[in-house]
Every structure is written in C-alpha cells, then in structure tokens.
Write a structure and sequence with these properties.
Blueprint (H helix, E strand, L loop, with lengths): L4 E6 L2 H5 L13 E7 L4 H15 L4 E7 L9 H10 L5 H9 L16 H12 L2 H15 L7 E4 L2 E4 L5 H12 L1
Parallel strand pairs: 2-3
Antiparallel strand pairs: 1-5, 2-4, 4-5
Helix pairs in contact: 2-4, 3-5, 3-6
C-alpha cells in the first residue's frame, strides 16, 4: 500500500532550496523536488532510489535533499544525516546507497564510504566541526516550520506530498499530478 497525502497548499520553492544545491539536476530546472528524508526511514529507503533514478533521466528535474532524522524512532539516523549534510551534493546518492546497504540499527561507520582520502577527510572535518549538525538543525527547523511531521515528505514545485513512492512510475505519476 502506498501512503499518499496531497496538499494543494504551496510553499515558495526558493525558501525550500535556500542554501542548498540539487543532488541531481540543475538549479534552474522547471521541476524542483525537495525531499525531507530520514536516512533510516524504511519508506524513505524505498523512495530514494526511485527519486534518484527518475531525476537522472529527466533533465527538467532538480532533486534537492533536506535532512529530517526522526531520532525518537531511528536513534542512529542523526549521525547519518550529519554525514549526508557534509557530503558534496554529487556524492549524496553514493552515501545514501552505502547507508541503505546496512541495517537501520547499525550506527554509522566511516568504513562504509569508499571515497578518495581528500573527499573523505573533507566530509570528516565538516562533521567534526559540527557543520553537519548545523545543517541538520536548519533542515529540521525548516521542516517543522512547514508542517513536516514525518518522512518521506517532499515538495514538488512547492506542493506537499507525504508518503513513500515504491516505483519510478509512482514518482512519475505523482510529479505529473503536481506539474500538469
């Protein structure tokens, strides 16, 4: 069963993307998908790959990621979110995949990341300086201010959609429902 909640209320896309770059696509793409996600959320884990595949095949789509770890039910998610916050945008799909290959009960390990030493050190330094934490706190604050209460929640051209998307076809159907 796919959970689906559609809201016609619109949020300014610029507010949603302020301070971050797309993980896939270009900033001036006509379709902007902003995903609020928890790295340990099972519905998010199903949705991530489908959104990434969809966006990679659509030059008119920009996919942005906001981090919204639900630590009350996923106690290891916050550290994973900090690492994602410190990861260069073009490497986020790779880190998401590395996280998803492990159990949600497993705490994050630097051994999961197979980057060159320079990239890995840059991510580690960012996390150690609490820059990832600052980004996560900013994303959480933004999410709460927009009424995000669970994950995955996404905004497609500013319109809210709550729920996992099991297939790329589901992504396409939902995106079309907001953009046509």
């Amino acid at each position: 069963m796919m959970l689906l909640l559609i809201s016609q209320e619109s949020v300014d896309a610029q507010k949603l993307t302020e301070g971050i770059k797309p993980v896939i696509g270009v900033e001036n793409a006509p379709i902007k998908i902003v995903l609020f996600t928890d790295p340990d959320c099972p519905y998010c884990r199903i949705t991530h790959g489908n959104l990434i595949e969809y966006a990679k095949n659509r030059p008119d789509v920009a996919l942005y990621v906001r981090l919204f770890p639900l630590v009350q039910i996923h106690p290891n998610a916050y550290r994973k979110a900090e690492v994602l916050a410190c990861t260069p945008e073009d490497k986020i799909p790779e880190v998401i995949k590395a996280i998803e290959e492990r159990s949600t009960r497993e705490p994050f390990s630097w051994d999961w990341l197979k980057f060159d030493k320079k990239t890995l050190k840059k991510i580690q330094d960012c996390v150690n300086k609490d820059l990832g934490k600052k980004r996560v706190e900013k994303d959480l604050s933004l999410g709460f201010s927009l009424g995000v209460r669970g994950t995955p929640t996404m905004f497609i051209n500013g319109k809210r959609h709550v729920g996992g998307l099991r297939t790329v076809n589901d992504v396409d159907r939902v995106v079309r429902s907001y953009t046509e």
